[in-house]
Amino acid sequence: MQCDRNKRQIRAMARGEIIGSLKIREHARNCLRCQAEMSRERRMQRELQALRSDVPVPGGLLNRILDAVDTLDRRPAVARRRRSKLAGTCVVVVALLIGIGSRSGRRRAVQAS
Ligand SMILES: [Zn+2]
After folding, report:
1. Structural domain boundaries of the chain?
2. Which residue of 16, 64, 67, 83 is 20 to 30 Å from 49, comparing CA positions?
């Protein structure tokens, strides 16, 4: 069973979008690589959800980031390692920017009251 070939399905399963085929579910139960992939995806979703409920994000920015990450993932497997690291860095940078923005917003709100 090729883990890389199942990655998209594994991730969709982690997001709860699909149940996944029996074959893949059984594989994921015994495969540490796929389990790691699922927990990585779940953690990412949790973080994005936390961001989404924490701060108002302008113009579907997060969706655009997610699209970009998806596009990067579709590139050939050779470059995937480097690119997914790059995509991760982008998400972190944007998260920091949003965090800084919301913090100064909150400070302004405190001063106003
Ligand atoms: Zn696997």
Report:
1. 1-41, 55-113
2. 83
